[in-house]
Amino acid sequence: MQNTPLKIAVAGVGTVGRGVLEILQKKSFLKKINLNITAIASRRKIKLNKDVLKNTIIFKDARELLKFDNYDILLEIIGGEEGIAKELVFNALKNRKNVVTANKALMSKYWNELQNLSKKNGSTIKYEAAVAGGIPIIKILDEFLISNSIKRIYGILNGTSNFIITNMQERNESFDNILKKAQDLGYAESNPKLDIDGTDTAQKLSILSSLSFGIDSNIKKIYKDGIQNIDLIDLKYAHSLGFKLKLLGIAEKKNNCLSSFVYPCFVNTNEIISRVDGVFNAVVVESDFCKKNFFLGEGAGAHPTATSIVSDVIDICRSNKNFYTNKEIGIKKITFNKIEERIGSYYLRFTTFDQPGVISGISNEFKKNNISMKSMLQKDPHVSNQKFATIVVTTHNCLEKNMIQALKRIDKLKFIVNKTVYYRIETLNN
Q: Which of 191, 316, 383, 388 has the most crowded CB, counting CB atoms within 10 A?
């Protein structure tokens, strides 16, 4: 360890930023890793240890850091794919400064540009906190598994969505009710769109795919579906069939083709990931030599995320030299599979008029599209005078475009009352 302390500039002191400062202001800790916080940019008033941070400059406007040069490491904790966060990160790398960020939106959108800029200028960009909070998945992929070839990576990457699904199943309450509870508890934002529509998961999957497969996994090429339309009745049927519903991000490389999807799907209760509940995240990495590795941890919150940020800072301090991944970044050409090319099984729920010929009509359309049923559960009308019946079907593996074509035709049949509900079934132990 060298004698001269490394200088840190902190941009953004929100919930996570306060957690970072809480750690960094520990006198004993700072002495141990030889750091000096030279500047903090924050619109909010912050509590400072004056003994530790007596020479720290406080900027109310983060743009002041664009003109500030007295730092070695920029901690970007503002967030957002554009604006001042982007300006600060690109400016720092261009000026041969190191960067530590928790910004998944920025990393997923500008992955290739940031990696190339870092390499060109001999600087370091680290982003452990951008994916799965308290799980050191970036280090695992970039260091521990560097000698392995990654085949598939998947997981629960959004704690808010997992909390909602878990509580719908356990409390037998609607999506809207549980979302309100998640907001009251601080697990969901007042505008939860990015969490529940799958965007947050897709951003994280983009980063993991880029690192795992040495490509630029453009988020626009990731198929994305969220949990906003989940109905409690399907969770009940899932349970009766031996499944649990989970929002998964899945990336799998076969030959030179990448399948990268985000969607709610049915997972067999025998799978360990089906038992990951609440706000926890989980990541499974399948590789050639280590086979299958499972990682579990809190996916969000001030302290898990702050711990990841500080861990990246420590890495830079320990090396104090240029560090970037041994994997080739963004130069491998790869074909992205469309969701229509997915091969797998399905859960389907039909709402029909209670009349003869329903099963044969559905079966006929399945046959035309090379789809075969695996199981069927028929629920008679709950009330004697009710005209509708519910039919739940699971299928054997088939091509998704065949399933979509079959459902388009089935939903036009005269006995179908509502648009068919379907979920993909993921077999993860293959």
A: 316
